[in-house]
Write a structure and sequence with these properties.
heterodimer; A: 265 residues; alpha/beta; Rossmann fold; 2 domains; 6-stranded mixed beta sheet; 8 helices; 12 strands; 33% helix; globular; B: 343 residues; mainly alpha; ABC transporter involved in vitamin B12 uptake, BtuC; binds adenosine-5'-triphosphate; binds magnesium ion
């Protein structure tokens, strides 16, 4: 096994997608950045979302994740209309995200970060207290399973970790809790070659388990080997949707570069 | 709970056995955030014990413990709020406002003393709710919101107290309950309340989900929200908590002194923040401990009373506190202690 592969993989697109965006538009104040985007992710499918800086990839991902509601359009999860009031509601149905800019709370220990918003509690008289032992050991086990050997203890403060290690903690957390849909915004941006390969393998395994994955990356040689479909975003609009068999890495790079060039002129 | 795929360890991970390393005993002790202020308190106590013969007298103990108790109770709320990333500069005025309301109701208007107390505390919580709503809904710095509230309450206190005789000579049951003497000891009830409240919130902070959310909200609000923490609600609750404790401590002070003036609580907002900071709470949110603030409050009280004992004019002590505060913060920044974690 030399690397992640998706060639022997068939996706049944006649079934319901896990998640669907229907004519989504979004504006930050008066600055409109997403225009009528339609985008579906099926179970067991990895969708690569690519585009120039500022195209609106992170904005779309935050809409998927319930971090911000779109100004227009509808979200459908497993065939039902949904409206997430907060990321907590999205997480409750099995959607997990690794955000580009909102990964980790530096002051907290690893296990507190890992279980933030999904704390395991046990009864203690009339109260529910944090089950610290269990969260520590589960966090350590999960981090070990993704191959982050340098993290010694779940009590370690995250601010003492390197940028890549922090990123890895966030990815591990998403993989651990994600049950239906993973949203990964440039997850490998700070990672070494070995850890990047681990992440790509994990994406592969998530797909094999029937999860939908939305994967944002600028590096086409990361995107193409794992993606089943590639969506090219330009200035908040979907301009191309490609099956992975339709393109090579070089052609994909040319497409994105051409898109960027159009914007300059 | 959740049905999730449990990915088997990848080959790369399986090949590298992971070294597990627990912290040594000495490391754990150094990691105790209450240690530096604790050492400071011991040093200050030693100093005054050696300088004056009557440091350990019942009178001195009474004075230190009552001053420290009310500051601590205010400071517990302030600490929770600071950990969640906000400030409250109105606690000092609230410390006067709440007992004024209480006293007007039951001394001036013969409302049942307990009912009056509940109503007064509801007013103090209401102040916190306004602080919290204005700050989170309009997204302005709480420094400004609560500075505004400081002036609003100061004006209201002036208005309420004029023409009222807010002195209660015959102690009532509710006053004994909040501020009476603990039988056969030189100590007063606020000391017990203080320990109970501090213990409760030390537990809340370390062991409850709410504590985790408070730490995360103050640590970095974006990631906390992204993980589903209701960050605005957490902040609002801490505003209410902070104001409620300020009001409660004010009522204890009234019950202890048996009277209230509009000057009550002067500088308390700053003393409560100072106690928290001396105890290791970060000014930027995200870290701090309740017991640290308790130690910080005792440090303030010991210095205040101790300086009087050795003959320094009473009102001079704030100068001393000011210098100490700045030195402690410089030391903490230098040692990088503000980044510490809650394990
Ligand atoms: N919080 C925000 N407030 C206002 N405008 C924003 C905000 N976040 C993003 N934008 C704007 O929205 C547009 C899309 O940004 P977005 O972050 O979605 O791009 P992106 O495709 O993820 O880019 P990159 O590849 O650099 O991560 C940009 O023009 C950006 O200026
Ligand atoms: Mg982005």
């Amino acid at each position: 096994m030399s690397g992640p592969t998706n060639s022997d993989h068939v996706i049944d697109r006649s079934s319901e997608p896990v998640f669907e965006l229907r004519s989504i538009s979004h504006a930050y104040g008066r600055n409109k950045v997403i225009f009528g985007v339609n985008l579906s992710v099926w179970p067991g499918e990895v969708v690569g979302l690519v585009g120039d800086n500022g195209a609106g990839k992170s904005t779309l991902l935050k809409i998927f994740a319930g971090y911000q509601p779109p100004t227009e359009g509808a979200l459908r999860f497993m065939g039902k209309d949904v409206r997430f009031a907060s990321p907590a509601e999205a997480r409750a149905v099995g959607i997990e995200a690794v955000y580009q800019d909102l990964a980790i709370v530096d002051q907290l220990s690893l296990w507190r970060n890992f279980f933030l918003g999904k704390e395991i509690v046990r009864p203690f008289g009339p109260l529910k207290v944090l089950d610290r032992q269990r969260m520590r050991s589960e966090a350590e086990a999960a981090v070990a399973a993704l191959g982050l050997t340098r993290i010694r203890s779940a009590d370690e403060t995250v601010s003492t970790l390197s940028g890549g290690e922090r990123q890895s903690v966030a990815i591990t957390r998403a993989m651990h809790f994600g049950a239906k849909l993973l949203l990964l915004d440039e997850p490998t941006a700070a990672l070494s070659v070995r850890e990047t390969r681990n992440v790509l393998h994990s994406i592969d395994r998530a797909r094999a388990h029937g999860l939908g994955v939305l994967y944002v990356d600028h590096n086409m040689s990361h995107v193409l080997p794992v993606a089943d479909r590639i969506v090219l975003l330009e200035l908040g609009r979907v301009v191309r949707v490609l099956d992975r068999d339709e393109v090579s890495i070089e052609e994909l790079q040319d497409l994105v570069a051409a898109s960027a060039k159009r914007l300059e002129s | 709970m959740d049905s999730r795929p449990n990915p088997a360890p990848s080959p790369a991970a399986a090949a590298t056995p992971r070294q597990r390393r627990r912290k040594s005993w000495a490391e754990s002790l150094l990691g105790v955030r209450e240690l530096p202020p604790g050492i400071g308190l011991v040093a200050v106590v030693l100093f005054f014990s050696l300088q004056t013969g009557n440091f350990w007298s019942p009178q001195t103990m009474t004075a230190i413990s009552t001053v420290a108790s009310t500051i601590t109770i205010v400071s517990v709320g302030v600490t929770m709020l600071m950990i969640s990333g906000e400030f409250d500069l109105s606690v000092g005025q609230n410390f006067a406002f709440t007992p004024i309301v209480w006293a007007i109701l039951f001394v001036g208007n013969d409302v049942n003393e307990w009912l009056a107390l509940v109503l007064a505390l509801a007013c103090s919580a209401g102040v916190g709710l306004v602080n919290g709503l204005v700050t989170t809904v309009f997204g302005i710095p709480s420094f400004i919101t609560t500075l505004g509230m400081f002036f609003v309450l100061e004006g209201i206190n002036n208005l309420l107290i004029s023409g009222h005789q807010l002195i209660m000579f015959d102690p009532r049951a509710s006053m004994e309950f909040l501020g009476g003497r603990i039988a056969t000891t030189p100590f007063y009830m606020p000391l017990i309340w203080m320990f109970a409240i501090a213990a409760a919130f030390a537990f809340v902070l370390a062991r409850l989900r709410y504590g985790n959310w408070t730490l995360a909200t103050g640590g970095k609000v974006g990631p906390a929200k992204a993980m589903g923490v209701p960050t605005r609600r957490v902040k609002r609750r801490n505003f209410v908590l902070c104001a409620l404790f300020a009001g409660l401590a004010g009522c204890m002070q009234f019950a202890y002194i048996k009277g209230v003036t509009q000057g009550q609580g002067q500088n308390y907002e700053l003393l409560a923040i100072t106690a928290a900071v001396l105890g290791g709470t970060s000014l930027f949110g995200g870290s701090g401990t309740i017991w640290g603030s308790v130690i910080g409050a005792f440090l303030l009280a010991t210095i205040q009373i101790g300086l009087v004992l050795i003959g320094v004019p009473g009102s001079f002590y704030v100068t001393f506190i000011g210098v100490m505060l700045v030195i402690v913060v410089i030391a903490n920044v230098r040692l990088g202690r503000f980044g510490g974690s809650q394990t």
